[in-house]
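Exercise 3.2. Students should predict the tertiary structure of the chain below and write it as structure tokens, then compare their answer with the key that follows.

Predict this chain's 3D structure.
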Amino acid sequence: MKGVSRRGILAAGAAGGAAISATVARAAGFGNPDQPPEGAVNVTNPRALAVPGPHDSGLADMMPAFQSPPATDVGSMPQFWASFNLAPRRIQDGGWGRQVTQADFAISTEIAGVDMRLSAGGIRELHWHQQAEWAIMTYGHCRITVLDAQGRPFVADVKEGDLWYFPAGLPHSLQGLAPDGAQFVLAFDNGASSEFNTLLATDWMAHTPPEVLAKNFGVPADAFRNIPVHSRWIFQGEVPPPLDVVKARMASKAGVPAYPFTFSLYDAPKMGETAGGYVQIADSTNFPVSRTVAAGLATVRPGAMRTMHWHPNADEWQYYLKGEGRMTVFNAGPEANTANFRPGDVGYVKKGLGHYVENTGKEDLVFVAVFRSDRYEEVSFADWLAHSPPEMVAATFNLSAETVAAFPRGRGDMMPG
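Answer key:
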């Protein structure tokens, strides 16, 4: 869009109408603040935009924000886009898994992510981690089991939109249910964690002398003759009995855990709801067992945006479930970079960095934001300015008092298009 440059506006604000007119005459383009000018809008020879050398247009065209960034983008910050769609799948009878960890995604220091599929009856074998495991169901139905540190068992069936959380060190298992198993995304509260390097019950048993197993379990050593000599990880099993039957079989004299290990995020209250969408939150305030991971599920209507904001207490790891979006991240420097996101993609924003997400598609954009924290916190840019001294805000940005008074008050998480 041709017109007044941002710097032109700032320079002219204090000088009156005549100075504004002079600035307009020699301005470049509104929303193009840097020198040398950034963005395709500045190109006078169209061939300067061509990519005549080797390239894969099919791949490049999936990231238009990289090919032609907004003119307001500046500098180059660490890559904050990754995708499970490009992660190799480890496939076994019963399901598969793929991951995006810090080894593949350098910026992701606080969270490692895994996308996993279990067929009906498919079992993610008995295991535990040195890190806490948080998960969101993205398809189907799954049965989870866990034993807490007081010897109290928990079993539950989960569906799309449900969460589970297993504190570090608690042993658990997962199994796909009828009719078509499950798919889910796991988040570990350590970016270096790997799903392919977990503490597996089969590995430990196979690497323990039979006489020790006999003493430990109180049965003859020969009973362990046919144990697997390799880990199972994921394997095909039978669809399990009804939940009530399994719950009765697992019951312990120690009782049941104080808090459930599951939570329905899709049923959580809609926070900051506007015509542009809403956010649903799960943290230790409403999901008490989840002490190291908090989450917010954002639904952004077509043409709307997740407003400019930042999170003061933790990095944000994002998983995109539906729709198409574009996120810009702002850092000191200044630095501002933009990337596109589609289902299966992963985003990451370091603690305290400003960002916003626009819905660029024709359907709702839905993504989950995960934080290594016991609580969800954010600061809204518009809410901050609306609750600052209005004269100060007007003077800082060369805005009229009427404009400042029109800023939305209260933390509206979404703004309609």
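Discussion points: The CA atoms of residues 34 and 398 lie 18 Å apart. The two ends are 18 Å apart (CA to CA).
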